[in-house]
Amino acid sequence: MNLIDTIILAIIEGITEYLPISSTGHMIIASSFMKIAGDDFTKLFTIVIQLGAILSVVVLYWKRFFQSFDFYFKLLVAFIPAVILGLLLNDVIDELLESPIVVAISLIIGGFILLKVDDWFKANEVVDEDNPQAHTNISYLTALKIGFFQCLAMIPGTSRSGASIVGGMTQKLNRKTAAEFSFFLAVPTMFGATAKKLFDYYQAGFELSSNQINYLIIGNVIAFVVALLAIKSFIDYLSKRGFKIFGYYRIILGVGLLLIHYFLYPLTTV
After folding, report:
1. How remote is the C-alpha of 229 from its chain's centroid?
2. For the chain, what is the radius of gyration of the CA atoms?
3. pTM of the predicted model over 0.90
4. What is the dihedral of CA 185, 173, 227, 25, to 10 degrees?
């Protein structure tokens, strides 16, 4: 990786982290075109810089993020499935992170789901005037179920935010509430993923050079700033318009990637 690669991937991460289009998938696609996707530091980088984007949630929603210990316990419960499955499937996940074809297929499947999800859960958007907080009361069981949905994002191209938002909607949360809980859940999830990835990197015998440390710092700062600008726009758009545009985007991108790979330019990982 070089500085230009770092900047490009960090901008992609900041823009896509909160959209249901898979930030990891987009970084795999970009790094595949750059011919650096199979590099061990690239795989570390694409995980670690997500932490920078995630921290923008703490800044934007700091009053709500520090609202109660009960809220933290619910985030912890939702985080548990990712911890267990992440440890059990670590090697499989690493292999999938090298496959732009898996990303393309996941984008297409997820795209068709997003085309229908607004219709499936239309009733969730109706707020009871006598109980305007009806959609915001997230139980521990609901949090756990959302946590299992989040685990689907271990398949690159699925989208962590998309999976957990849809998971929340299956539990009768409206789009806005499901999206915000998904964003909060991302904080412990990405802290855990970053710590695990750094530990594995050093366990494998690798060490970070001064340049690589600088790339991680620069990448996190850029992802953080770009995500600050992106997250509010997404929440406003999602509340008013829903998921369809993201579904069409995913399908077009996924089909385009498959056509490029098989007919124009093989998307290799090295």
Report:
1. 16
2. 18
3. no
4. 80
